[in-house]
Amino acid sequence: MFGSQADPAMSAAKRKTACVTGGSGYIGSALIKLLLEDGYAVKTTVRNPDDTAKNSHLKELQAIGPLQVLRANLDEEGSFDEAVAGCDYAFLVAAPMNIRSKDPEKELVEAAVKGTLNVMRSCVRAGTVKRVVLTSSAAAVATRPLEGDGHVLDEDSWSDVDYLKATRPPFWGYPVSKVLLEKEASRFAQEHGLSLVTLCPVAVVGEAPAGKADSSVPAILSFLSGDQAAFAVLKTIEMGTGCVALVHIDDLCRAEIFLAEEAAAAGRYNCASLNTTIVEIARFLAHKYPQYNVNTDNLPGDVLKKPRVCLSSAKLVREGFEFEYKTLDEIYDNVIEYGKALGILPN
Ligand SMILES: NC(=O)c1ccc[n+]([C@@H]2O[C@H](COP(=O)([O-])OP(=O)(O)OC[C@H]3O[C@@H](n4cnc5c(N)ncnc54)[C@H](OP(=O)(O)O)[C@@H]3O)[C@@H](O)[C@H]2O)c1
Questions:
Q1: Which CATH number, 3.40.50.720, 3.60.21.10, 3.40.120.10, 3.30.310.50, labels domain 15-342?
Q2: From the CA of 141, how far away is ligand 1's center (Å)?
């Protein structure tokens, strides 16, 4: 466990405190940075605080504001009690991400549902948490068989668990885990009077403080890196959902905080700023970064020419949120340099 002293410029009494689970991760690290910049005191959890290589960015973030790092594991009941104690908001970002697990039912689905409820029980025990913001995924919204095109999916849309379990497409455990954890979280929140808001982000793009990013970043850079396993993730998204939808990490983190602070926010929120396709991304990258020799003629034959499905963030926008990064150019702005720093792309 390590921590920093409060910034003397802001008295402790004025600060709100937020817990972010999964501070070692890509999104968690970016959310912590934004919360600290916004004047929050932050408590975050990592599985292994002694792993200095993995957590060095958290030491650096302590220069921005008061950040406490605590050990917690989703698999251990009560593990998050200390992390959420005294917090105004709890951002549930940590989740099992081993999408290639040989036992997805146990390691992804069961672990995600149990882990989410575990943190929520800690929130109830804390008695101070005014809002829980759960990071789910568009994988819980759009992974369902839809014929034809022109579909617009809002928050009423749920991925089809029966279809996924019966057909077992690649990485099927991930969307199933997100649907089931959302439903259990919602049931638990109602039962215990917790104010819960759920965010369903699409593939996240952009630079974060974390020195390792194994989720969306290798996939959205796979056109440039040539990493076929990472490209397969993008291909699965397009085939399974009918589009590749993107959001910049800064917009996502601003949406997380917006939904924590907006008293009237309720239910699920899609978070997508652009609905596109593999072909459109490949063409954009080939044009903007000719040095990577992206071969747009060599894409698999079954990629989409245009999105069949649009993930709508109209609810988020209607309630006052504005996306800052809307075009491929804006969304991809700093992720190339980040990819180089992570060793995903050559320098
Ligand atoms: N990246 C995206 O495009 C995207 C899109 C939609 C939704 N999301 C969701 O956003 C959240 C964060 O994703 P990410 O992209 O930031 O992934 P990430 O970099 O892999 O971060 C996942 C975090 O969860 C933690 N974690 C995993 N298993 C845990 C356990 N048993 N106990 C405690 N902590 C555990 C990890 O800790 P360790 O470092 O110890 O492994 C890590 O901090 C996830 O819920 C993900 O489903 C991501």
A1: 3.40.50.720
A2: 18
